[in-house]
Amino acid sequence: MNSHDSSLQSNNPANSALDSVEKLHRAVSSALSHPTEQLIQQADNSLVHTEQAVLQAKGHANKNAVELAEELLGEEKERLSKLHSDER
């Protein structure tokens, strides 16, 4: 595979959604480990970005990847909501 192929792959909406979910996971994990206002805000921002990426991926080629991204997004939303309920 040459670099042109890998750049095409990384621009795939389904792969972008999965990458975004991975970044969200890291952001939520950081916020759970160190629940500062800044890290919680970063996780919230990452959630918004990830939701947009998953929405954009819907209807595109790799249905399995989109379904996986949606499932993982749901898990991260649960983790983040627990963090917000702990804040109160």
Question: How would you describe the overall organization of this protein?
Answer:
- By secondary structure, the protein is an all-alpha fold.
- It has one domain.
- It has four helices and no strands.
- The chain has helices at residues 3-10, 13-33, 37-57, 63-87.
- Helix 2 (13-33) runs parallel beside helix 4.
- Mean pLDDT is 87; it is low at 1-8.
What's the topology here?
Layout: H1 3-10, H2 13-33, H3 37-57, H4 63-87
Helix pairs in contact: 2-3, 2-4, 3-4
Structure characteristics:
mainly alpha, 0% strand, 85% helix, single chain, disordered N terminus, 88 residues
Specify the biggest β-sheet. Answer: none
Low-confidence stretches: 1-8
Question: What is the helix tally?
Answer: 4
| Strand percent estimate | under 5%
Q: Could you say which structural class the secondary elements and strand pairing correspond to?
A: mainly alpha
As a percent range, the share of helical residues equals over 70%
Report mean pLDDT, rounded to a whole number.
87
